[in-house]
Specification:
mainly beta; 2 domains; five-stranded antiparallel beta sheet
Amino acid sequence: MTKNVYINGIVWVLFLLVGGCVDPYRPPEITSPASYLVVNGFFNSAPGTTTTIQLSRTQNLADPKVPTAETKAVVTIESAHKDVYTLKEGAVGSYTLTGVTPSANETYRLHIKTTTGADYYSDYVPVLTTPPIDSVSWHPDNEGLQINVNTHDSKNNTRYYRWEYDQTWEYNSEYTSAFEILNNKIVDRTVSVFRCWGSENSSNIVTATTSRLSQDVVSQFPLVHIPSTSIKLSVRYSILVRQFALSQDGYNYYEQLAKITQSIGSIFDPQPSQITGNIHSQTDANDLVLGFFRVGTVESKRIFITKSQLPPWYPNSGVGSCDIDTLGGGDILRDRPGIIDRYSPFLYLTTHEDCLDCRLRGGVIKKPDFWD
């Protein structure tokens, strides 16, 4: 699922509390018991795709629980010519619509009716066609790897862009492991934990505009920079970039959101009440809604970069010292180190478990389907 809003229940306010020389400002939206609706999703205009709208609630920062999903709502998409499409709730707080392709010359709005009777409507918005990504380029610099995106609209119609990206990387353990401890016994390891894949989705807001340029061309726009010491560059790296065309209002919304979530959080920074999306409460004009409803396509492009294509960098494994020791079976069952291999009939080569099991650094041993 492609997400259209970089926000969940409380992420939008976390950065307001980052320390600085000035005491952080805590507006009522953060500290009050009020819970505001968060709308996450867009109406996908590509044929054969599924549209997903996610609904949740904000919460007080002192509340440690996961943000509450908005369940059992009636969610519809309505055209200006009165066509109505009802989304079906599947996973908790997630509403989907399949088999409906919006008409290119129509406008649409989102309507949400909650179980409490509250009504929320978006503005009517046109269908936006996103131009293809020309390329995702990269180059090494003195600090690491810089990744950029390039695109253009030959008709000069788009002008406002937003990007998301998913990073995936292959990495290895420091040593292979031939044995493991199961049921307090040393047994042969049947599943390799030497090679893993890590992943990370973008969490920052990345937008650009060509509105002040004569041509609608985005050239070498910086997406992400990876330090040369990062484990992401230790074996093989991939990035999937998704591109969205925005309206000017949509662009302004994300710019406001970026100023809130990516600022230092002092009283001199913009406050959450300044975020103006295109979804409004019809029941209560003072009821804040977070989200921006969009109708359109999304374009994507994936690239791969291998270690051999990069300078001779030395990524940090992140596991510290991996000194090797020799231990007998009794010591191993008592101390529970990682086991590299047998050294002699009664001794084993051992080291720290996180030097052997790549999963302990957050990855998985199942190779992604898109990995060559």
